[in-house]
Amino acid sequence: MVIAIDGPAASGKGTLARRLARRFGLAHLDTGLLYRATVARLLHDGGDPTKEALAVAAASRLEIADLEAPELRDEEITRWASVVAAQRAVRLALLDFQRDFAMLPPGGAGGAVLDGRDIGTVVLPDADIKLFVTASAEVRAERRFRELRDRGVGSIRSLVLHEIRERDERDRHREVAPLKRAEDAFLLDTTDMSASVAFDAACQLIISRPVKTA
Ligand code: DC
Asked: CA 123, CA 1: separation in Å to the nearest integer?
């Protein structure tokens, strides 16, 4: 079983993807980490992330272990990740990594959950089930604000909201693989849902989905 989950920043798609993977015994790939790890590798080698050829070379050399580096959530990497993610050749270089993960999940898992921005539209258009997870910008900003506070990172609510809106704008309006709901994706608006309610709703959709015939 292959599950594709897309949605904007702080929509809760990562938490949902992790929980679904555990519940159904699937491998999980947070594809945002691929863009983040590409930047980390580039910066480590002293490269300029705006140079597409360098970014492609870094993307092509990525390995699963690179996705575990603790600095991938740092602010500088977060900022550069959206720049690198807008480069067509970088996205192309990361396609096989994502498709291989879905088709041959590590650890002998019986399938995979991938979450990102273009999984249901570009990376895995034939996924068994597609979810588009969203929530109002205000609610997403509040969740991100609390998450930062719990991690001991000082932040200002209004700035977090501003940053979320800016990222939405970039992700939705970029030329290559913009964030959008696939026509056959279920919409899960979590604005008024807790993570547990969203998880239960997603499980119901998965369990009751019509089985695809070859
Ligand atoms: O989900 P995230 O914040 O970790 O993603 C980091 C960046 O990568 C963000 O700018 C969106 C982009 N991204 C993307 O373009 N396509 C994906 N499938 C996943 C993330």
From this structure: 15
Q: Using a 6 Å cutoff on CB, does residue 13 contact ligand 1?
A: no
Structure tokens at 160: 């977090």
What pLDDT is recorded for position 4? Answer: 98
CA distance 4 to 114: 5
* H-state helical runs in the chain: 13-24, 32-44, 52-60, 75-84, 88-103, 137-150, 157-173, 195-207
Residue 91 in this model has a pLDDT that exceeds 90: yes
Q: Which strands form 2-6's sheet, in the order they lie side by side?
A: 27-30, 112-116, 2-6, 129-134, 186-189
CA of 214 to the centre of ligand 1 (A): 31
The per-residue pLDDT for 213 is: 64
Is the residue at 213 inside a domain?
Answer: no
Q: CA 158 to CA 12: how far, in whole Å?
A: 20
Looking at residue 34, its amino acid is L
- Domain hosting 111: range is 2-206
What is the whole-number distance in angstroms between the Cα of residue 104 and the centre of ligand 1?
22
Q: Does the residue 121 lie in any domain?
A: yes
| Residue 60: strand, helix, or coil | helix
For the Cβ of 36 lying below 6 angstroms from any atom of ligand 1, the answer is yes
Residue 211 included in any domain: no
Query: Is ligand 1 within 6 A of the CB of residue 10?
Result: no
- Separate counts of helices (H) and strands (E) for the chain: 8, 5
- Please give the model's pTM, rounded to 2 decimal places: 0.93
Report yes or no on 214 lying in a domain.
no
What's the rounded Cα separation, in Å, for the pair 169 and 148?
Answer: 22
